Amino acid sequence: MASKKKSTTGKKSASRAKEAAKKAADKAKNRAKKEAAKAKKQAKKAADKAKSAAKKAKKKAGKAKRAAKKAAKKHGKKPKELAEAVAPAPAAAPAAPYPPSRRTWPAAPTPTPTPTPTPSTPPAASAAPSSDDTIVVLRAKARELGIANYSRLTKAQLVERISAGR
């Protein structure tokens, strides 16, 4: 009797596995149908867009042809002769090699240097340092005289070393 129970349990699990496999296959089939319908819809949309662009181009070409005939009639020539006489200018190169978001502004015009008058007296470095001079002026004099570590010196030390360096 025990063996009969085992066989029915095995049959039940096998039938459950078959049902699960069938459900999974149905889900996959439905998913594939949905994706195929979506792809078909996208393809139709792209085809419609291409048709629309082709219609616009054809319409533009017709307008250009009519304009050429009108101009030829006005000038007393055939459209082909007129086209050769009035050749279109070659296409201009793009304004910038980058997309619009990366364009750079044109360079600003360079200012013309104004001549500075030459002083008749030697530069301020030759003048004797005083405590009235600012630290910036004293450091400039120290730099001109070649004093080492002038940027770390105090105002009093700069005055002393500049006076000694002369």
Task: Please summarize what this structure is.
The chain is an all-alpha fold and 166 residues long. The chain is 62% helix and 0% strand. The longest helix has 74 residues, at 2-75.
The H/E string reads HHHH
Q: Considering DSSP H and I runs of 4 or more, what fraction of the residues is helical?
A: 55-70%
By secondary-structure content and strand pairing, the structural class works out as mainly alpha
Largest sheet: none
Strands, count: 0
Are there runs of 5+ residues with pLDDT below 50, and where?
A: 121-125
How far apart are the first and last residues' alpha carbons, in Å? Answer: 124 Å
Total domains: 2
Strand-helix topology:
Elements: H1 2-75, H2 79-85, H3 135-145, H4 155-165
Helix pairs in contact: 1-2, 3-4
Provide an overview of this structure.
The protein contains four helices and no strands. It is mainly α and 166 residues long. The chain folds into two domains: 7-85; 125-165, no CATH class. Helix 1 (2-75) crosses helix 2 and helix 3 runs parallel beside helix 4 (155-165).
Comma- or semicolon-separated keywords:
166 residues; 62% helix; mainly alpha; flat
